[in-house]
Amino acid sequence: MKKVKRILWPLLIALVVLIAGGIVYLKATAYQPTTAAKTAEKSAQSTTNSLYFPSDDHQKPLVVFYPGALVTPASYSIWAQQVAAAGYPVYIAKFPLNLAVLSPNVATKILNGSKRDYVIGGHSLGGVMASRYAKNHDDQQLKGVFYMASYPDEKGRLDQTKLPVLSLTASRDGVLNWSNYEKAKKYLPTTTNYQQIKGGNHGGFGSYGQQKGDHSAMITNAAQQKQVAQDLIAWLNQLNQ
């Protein structure tokens, strides 16, 4: 028994060190907001589960947003601020280690029993998790789902629902798996609204600099942020008619 303990203890310590090192690494490599995004973030309220951009309008649907993998919530502050200014409050979800897969149902905590209508969406991996949430919480309050450089997997398929869906992509996206994106269209309603931002890239759906593997954008980040906000607002306005 003592011999077994002498073997197990070093292994346990090594495992703990490995896990701790992994956590430190993920935190250190997370994409951080640009100066412009940090400025926009000042209009938000930080809560335990989200970065909240309030609106004076108390009738329009809430917007719940799941960030992409390893992207900090504040990185989406620019378009979120613009959408909130149009009357749609925005909640950018916070996840452990900035990974939506570690807390996919955080939207329930964000909504906190609210009876107000809402839409949910996400960027990249965040969109996949948001889609799964929507599939499992398709009720009268959920009014639509949106994707930014993202698509549903089979667990988040929405083709059998009547939910309005917006799919935003960018022509210079070098991170999105375009083949899988096309294949995943079978999981979306035939009424899905597809929009593409010409000259934009994957990282341009937020404001956190160049993402590994991405193509260089042919438009400024400010221009892409404005287009993201405009497309999302136009879609929301249609839902709110």
From TrEMBL:
Among its keywords, does the record have Metal-binding?
Answer: no
Q: Mind listing the UniProt keywords for this protein, alphabetically?
A: Hydrolase, Membrane, Transmembrane, Transmembrane helix
Q: Which GO terms describe its molecular function?
A: hydrolase activity
In which domain of life is the source organism classified? Bacteria
The family database entries (InterPro entries) matched by this protein are listed as: AB_hydrolase_5, AB_hydrolase_fold
- Matching SUPFAM superfamilies, A to Z? alpha/beta-Hydrolases
Q: Where are the transmembrane segments?
A: 7-26
Which stretches make up the Alpha/beta hydrolase fold-5 domain?
Answer: 63-225
Name-wise, this protein is: Alpha/beta hydrolase
